[in-house]
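protien #1 (seq + structre)
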Amino acid sequence: DVQLQAFGGGLVQAGGSLRLSCAASGFTFDDYAIGWFRQAPGKEREGVSCISNSDSTTYFADSVKGRFTISSDNAKNTVYLQMNSLKPEDTAVYYCAASPRITSAQAMGVMTMIRFWYDYWGQGTLVTVSS
């Protein structure tokens, strides 16, 4: 069975950092892209970042560009989202998702932020940034 487990959320002060992890199993990790999405209370789920394991390229939403980085450890089937300079508006439940159809995050760009492309979703992990 395909499983995605997101963890690493917590409470942090504005300006602080957190690292989220997404552990994947049940599919050929190297053939998939992993995306991070977030959903704040009362808002739509939005894309944050994506990494395509086939070519190791990445994409970031404008709202997090320059503050967040994404990386993949293919040996551990795990993707990390390093979040720095956190702001209260980053408060949300963060989800990771897997896509076999995103072959290049760089080439597909903003399309990687669309939920349509993702077939599998993990449970969320809550990030709360206090002011």
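ok now protien #2
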Amino acid sequence: VQLQASGGGLVQAGGSLRLSCTASGSTPSINAMGWYRQPPGKQRNLVAAITSVGKQNYADSVKGRFTISLDNGENTVYLHMNSLKPEDTAVYYCYARKGLRTYFGKGTLVTVSS
């Protein structure tokens, strides 16, 4: 499974961005996709996840501000980020889970200026 993410960039606090990530290759039986993020100098943590049947999960820090969605037909996961804060600054990595294996894409940088 290969993952290609896009949509990062620089935005002012309070602004919005949409990240997208498309899976290709051996995509049948992907059972979940989502996003992790890694702020500078910190560990990577889960931001949001969605299963193939639409069950969503969010980190407490983004609940009410971020929305994850999945286009099964296009094997694409989106992360709609609203009311962005400087502490949302991080490299965002999309992932796909297939069986017991997790695949990560290259990260996309999101920078939120105050």
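Residues 22 and 74 are 7 Å apart (CA to CA).
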